[in-house]
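Q: What structure does this chain adopt?
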Amino acid sequence: MKGHYGGSGGDDKSTFCNDAMKLRDFINQYLLFGEVRLSKGTSDGELAEFFSLVHPVKTEHELVRIGGLNDGGYLVPDDFNGIKVCFSPGVAASAHFEEDLANRRIKSFLADYSVECPPIKNPFFFFEKKFLGTKNNEMYTTLTSWIDRNAPPGRRNDTANGHRGR
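A:
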């Protein structure tokens, strides 16, 4: 995590946890402008564990832009062989990323409680009116439950354990 978001750059666990807390504070400040707040539902340890798993990975593949030119566009490795599905929470008003994946015949499972349907109709889109959360109810689904309902047969365990869902 050194230098990726202005953290202190230390390598020990306590420094990492402090950096994770600084990141949470930064995100909270950023979201305040949109009158959105993060809850204390996620512990600092859980945040630290999550951020320890999320980091850039160097591959032999060139990067390609998928999605729109602004929000909803991402640089990803040009390595789509065997990828069957994408799980995409937080659709809102943009589904250009998922539309580009559909053009590659990749199904997208979309979830967003704040909208009634995806902004683009596509036979490769499968929408649930739910937020991604820490519990299952009318408004929320957990990542594990969402994957269990939708991942291709035989790939549920790989996908739920953080592996690519090919």
